[in-house]
């Protein structure tokens, strides 16, 4: 059977039937775990007929012996082995032998969590496809992630505009279990409201920030090369009582991020390669596309030297004016703009 998408596998399982073998690939552990739970609901094994282990910690002799043994006082058995990308040669060969003729009364579920390595696992992929089903659970892209969040909110009776969903995804990241937790907090936060519309202020409040404070404003101003906006935000943060070293930290991370992107962009790297090499999340591709407007590398070097000086000054209580030091970093970074 050809590799299915996650959505097609969910649709197939909605029929409440299973096959002897499932290979779940991709980086999205959250949705894979949900699929495993669904398969277990369908199979319905009791404790005597259920075995689960991380692949590198499993007793493979016992695991495959169980998979190849009829269930005890039941019609079905289920064996789950997660992270099979970590297994060595001998267990892998034993697994391939089992896949040649899997026991129909056993449902064997395997997860493979290394997308790059999976590309070289042709024999394993073909054996699993021949014996049952393979499905890929790649991390959701920005639009897919936003759709997933909106659907989950709808299931909870919540409504959210695009800006609120964008902020939630940007704040929490693409880890679905973390997003699920934050949406549960939003549900509880809005439980007593007649209007269940979630605002950006609600999102900020639930992830630990006040409705008046957007923790990403300064970072966004820097990555957008908005000198005037960034300088005003430094003034506001300090006037509101933020510690100078905290403001410096908020400035340093986006400056270093910009420097990495600019260096790789100038070297002619492809946008997709820059995203991976710079450790960026997929929704940050806007930074890659706007890299041409970033300051030249000499500006970054000069700004980083000022960051080092400011850090030493704040830690030594030298009495230097924090506003002058912090705004000096921005003026150095954006010199000529």
If you had to describe this structure to a student in words, what would you say it looks like?
56% of the residues lie in helices and 10% in strands. The chain has 17 helices and 8 strands. Strand 3, helix 3 and strand 4 form a beta-alpha-beta unit. The chain is elongated, with a radius of gyration of 26 Å. The protein starts with a strand and ends with a helix.
Which characteristics define this entry?
56% helix; two-stranded parallel ribbon; alpha/beta; 337 residues; 10% strand; 17 helices
Distance between the termini: 58 Å
**Per DSSP, what share of the residues sits in E-state strands of 2 or more residues?**
5-15%
In total, the number of strands is 8
Low confidence ranges: none
Find the structural class using helix and strand composition: alpha/beta
Can you summarize the main beta sheet?
6 strands, parallel
**Cross-sheet strand order for the largest sheet:** 1-6-2-5-4-3
Element order: H for helix, E for strand = EHEHEHEHEHHEHEHHEHHHHHHHH
Query: How many DSSP helices?
Result: 17
- Rg estimate, integer Å: 26 Å
- The average pLDDT value, as a whole number, equals 88
Approximate helicity band: 55-70%
What does the overall shape look like? Answer: elongated
Short structural description:
By secondary structure, the chain is of the alpha/beta class. It has helices at residues 6-13, 29-43, 60-67, 89-100, 115-118, 122-131, 142-155, 162-172, 176-189, 200-206, 217-223, 227-239, 244-266, 271-277, 285-289, 297-316, 322-333; strands at residues 4-5, 21-25, 50-54, 77-82, 106-112, 133-136, 159-160, 197-198. It is 56% helix and 10% strand.
């Amino acid at each position: 059977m050809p590799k299915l998408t996650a959505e097609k596998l969910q649709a197939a399982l909605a029929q409440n039937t299973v096959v002897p073998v499932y290979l779940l690939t991709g980086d999205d552990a959250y949705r894979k775990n949900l699929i495993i739970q669904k398969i277990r609901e369908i199979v319905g094994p009791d404790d005597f007929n259920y075995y689960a282990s991380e692949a590198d910690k499993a007793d493979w002799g016992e695991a495959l012996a169980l998979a190849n043994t009829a269930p005890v006082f039941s019609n079905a058995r289920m064996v789950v082995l997660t992270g099979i990308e970590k297994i060595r040669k001998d267990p892998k060969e034993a697994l391939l032998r089992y896949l040649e003729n899997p026991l129909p009364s056993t449902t064997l579920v395997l997860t493979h969590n290394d997308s790059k390595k999976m590309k070289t696992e042709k024999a394993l992929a073909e054996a699993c496809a021949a014996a049952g089903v393979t499905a890929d659970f790649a991390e959701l892209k920005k639009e897919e992630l936003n759709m997933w969040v909106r659907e989950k909110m709808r299931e909870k009776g919540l409504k959210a505009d695009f800006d609120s969903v964008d902020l939630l995804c940007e704040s929490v990241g693409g880890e679905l279990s973390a997003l699920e937790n934050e949406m549960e907090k939003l549900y509880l936060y809005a439980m007593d409201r007649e209007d269940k519309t979630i605002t950006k202020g609600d999102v900020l409040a639930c992830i630990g920030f006040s409705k008046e404070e957007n923790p990403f404003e300064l970072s966004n101003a820097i990555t957008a090369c908005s000198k005037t906006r960034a300088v005003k935000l430094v003034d506001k943060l300090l006037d509101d009582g933020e510690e100078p070293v905290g403001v410096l930290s908020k400035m340093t991370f986006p400056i270093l991020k910009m420097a990495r992107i600019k260096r790789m962009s100038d070297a002619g790297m492809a946008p997709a390669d820059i995203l991976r090499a710079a450790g960026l999340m997929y929704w940050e591709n806007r930074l890659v596309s706007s890299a041409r407007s970033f300051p030249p590398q000499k500006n970054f070097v000069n700004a980083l030297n000022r960051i080092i000086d400011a850090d030493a000054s704040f830690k030594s209580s030298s009495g230097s004016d924090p506003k002058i030091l912090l705004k000096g970093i921005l003026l150095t970074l954006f010199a000529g703009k």
